[in-house]
Amino acid sequence: MRNKQHHGGRGRFENNGGIELEDVEKVFTLRRRTGVLRRSREEVRAVDGISFTVAPGEMVGYIGPNGAGKSTTIKMLTGILAPSGGRLRVAGIDPARERIRLAHHIGVVYGQRTTLWWDLPLRDSYTLVRRLYRVPARRFHRNLDRCVELLDLGALMDTPVRQLSLGQRVRGDIAAALLHDPAILYLDEPTIGLDAVSKVKVRGFLQDINAEHNTTVLLTTHDLTDIEQLCRRVMVIDHGRLVYDGTLDGLHTLGESERTLIVDFERVLPPVTVPGARTVKTDGPRQWLAIPADASAAPVVAAVAAHHPLVDLSIREPDVEDVIAAMYARLPRG
Length: 334
Ligand SMILES: Nc1ncnc2c1ncn2[C@@H]1O[C@H](COP(=O)(O)OP(=O)(O)OP(=O)(O)O)[C@@H](O)[C@H]1O
Known about the structure:
Blueprint: E1 19-33, E2 39-54, E3 59-63, H1 70-78, E4 85-90, H2 99-103, E5 106-110, H3 122-133, H4 137-150, H5 166-178, E6 184-188, H6 196-213, E7 216-220, H7 224-230, E8 233-238, E9 241-246, H8 248-255, E10 258-265, E11 278-283, E12 286-292, H9 298-307, E13 310-316, H10 320-330
Parallel strand pairs: 3-7, 3-8, 5-6, 6-7
Antiparallel strand pairs: 1-2, 1-4, 8-9, 10-12, 10-13, 11-12
Helix pairs in contact: 8-10
The structure holds adenosine-5'-triphosphate.
């Protein structure tokens, strides 16, 4: 895969893995029939003046509620959609003007749909990817061997894509996105619907790739654990505007968000009281304890377990919508 190296060039991130957006807008015009001969025009500002920079090698979370403008941004960053205004550069390239050239620098993975050939075995899909991107044989085999090993694809190479489980298919898609050594990887909900083991595998792989090759990652997800484990920086978009750019802890602090400890005791108990947590609900022997999302759950778990016999315990992370709603509630109105 791509070696860490510094390239010279005209733009700030010329020829490497940087992303720059300056006042980028995307306005969709909808035409509606309002009568036999009458039509009305309605504008949707899907992206409404967004500016940010992602440095080569950064892993950044891009989150927001449904309809916020995330997919529209990613589509502009791949060149599928042209912006209505503003300036975009990905690896120094204007995506809408040079989509084919850009394709050699980016990889895209959609958790909810595959870019592989449905009826072909993974092995054949990868051969097609190699031809499409004209990847030299040695480089292709080196990258493929690495992906097969790290993503545990060895036993699946001769299986048609339609017979793969969701987790296997996503792993197959991630490998396909990396065979041509892209400097930048866009991941759109890569862990959606995956079981816990597959999620851990996918996250571990992305960390390895980033550490080894300095791959820039822009990650869209509704799973805050993805962000917590992969991204030091998170950007929040809502109604087409960037409303937060900072750490996940900072976002939790702003939103005073909480994670929930769900504890099953051996018997029905009165609501437990332990420092750093408050019991928000009880149902028979089960109790729900809220703790601040930026605090460690370990002392609370230890305190609960020290005094009461436990049968089971799980932790529920706050979801993106909750965190953003809480953040708004705390922002001064203006
Ligand atoms: N081709 C299109 N024509 C008209 N409106 C569109 C089009 N694509 C997106 N929109 C609108 O733009 C807004 C942003 O949509 P977008 O798909 O970017 O959101 P999102 O943040 O990716 O949401 P989700 O999390 O649901 O995928 C929405 O109001 C959507 O209805």
